[in-house]
Design brief:
The protein has one helix and ten strands; from the N terminus they run H-E-E-E-E-E-E-E-E-E-E. With 150 residues, it is mainly β. The protein has one domain: Immunoglobulin-like, CATH 2.60.40. It is elongated and about 90 Å long.
Length: 150
Amino acid sequence: MKKKLILLAIAIFLIITIVLSTQTNLNIVKYKLKANVTELRINNSKLLLGISNDPTEFNFGIVPENITVKKILNLKNNENFDSLIEIHIDGNISDYIKVEEENFVLKSKENKQIDITFNATKIGYYTGEVEVYITTPKYEFLAPLSLWKL
């Protein structure tokens, strides 16, 4: 009888641990994307571009067709546990965006730079969003059991 109670207690503990370890928090961070693709413009033997160098936005500026422009998304995990990162691109700009790495685990205290490259093959005005999905364990003490570590 005592053995059965111990086995039952262990089973209940394992079930609770498994259920709690699947509980997560999801945060979504969004950044606006935009680009204006034009014909190649040359003035006095100089290529005219309008690339924004503002590090707080993903404005690729005014660029000629088939010219590649790269921006960098800087990510930092300040937590004491790893985070699962998924990057999605929405909008009419999405067909022309390449994300260097879309799904990965960002380790505790790790910094990572992700290249986001734009290259349109058609003239037009393009907009959209970069959506960064950040999944973390709901309970920090169960972080070592996070399912994405398997």
